Hints:
Its main location: nucleus. This protein has 286 residues and is mainly alpha-helical. The chain has helices spanning 2-26, 49-62, 84-98, 104-111, 117-124, 149-157, 167-170, 177-187, 217-225, 234-240, 250-262; strands at residues 102-103, 129-132, 137-140, 165-166, 190-194, 201-206.
Amino acid sequence: MSSLNSQLKGFKSGVVNQGNFVQARRHIASPAPAAQVSPASTPGASGSGGNSSSNAAAIAKRKKPVKNNVVYSQPADTGMGLYIMTQVLHLVEHLKEVEKPLTRADLERFLAKPLDSTMIEILRSHDKLVFDHVTDTYAFKPLHNIRSAQQLLTHLQASTTAQGLSVKELKDGWSGALATIDELEADGSILVTRTKKDGQARMVWINDKSLNVTIDDEFKTIWEKIVIPPAAELPGELERAGLKPTSVDPATIKKAMQKDQGKKQKKPRRGRITNTHLAGMLRDYN
């Protein structure tokens, strides 16, 4: 019993001491925040100058530094993309728009950055660009080297086929293609086919004026007075006029085909003769 009583007294004394410790912690005064500065402690206000300068220095120390998002390991974005092929695409489109050769300095000025050896190698081997080793210039290579009315007429006259030339191909590298086509069409130098929806030029051909034939108005009047019968009655009209039609009436051909299909020859059905040993004894009823 004495040992139990001593343990109980020790437990009670520990609980009492713990309660006093918690109570003592509650009475500890918290320090005043250093970030809050009263108007009296600011520079230029009333009060001691030493306290204001120390408070301002403490505030400056507690300010968070401004984050710098610039990554110095990556190239600067100049608006032309960060990848080489993207920049090459911008250079090709720029050369296509200006329609004249540009030097390396011109291209670097357009990209706002110097061209490295990799970029130079890609530009010189590009299938849409032409590099001149003498002048050290780069130019866009269109599908057809045509940029004037005279060049267009020369190209069409030298053509050995009657396929014509696509206007879409002409506009590749020649911004004034449509205006020149309209002028040559109005002059009668070329023939143009256009779309029905918006009248845009599609194909162009050379107009050989030596093949133009002048027809008298009297002949045109006689030609327009001739009435052509319908296609179904044309063979009959030719026969009544004593002319032989170049083709037979389709209705007659259809009827003849139907008659031929109805008259199919029937082959005689013959059985297999197996009793050949009775050939002299049997009677033939055929």
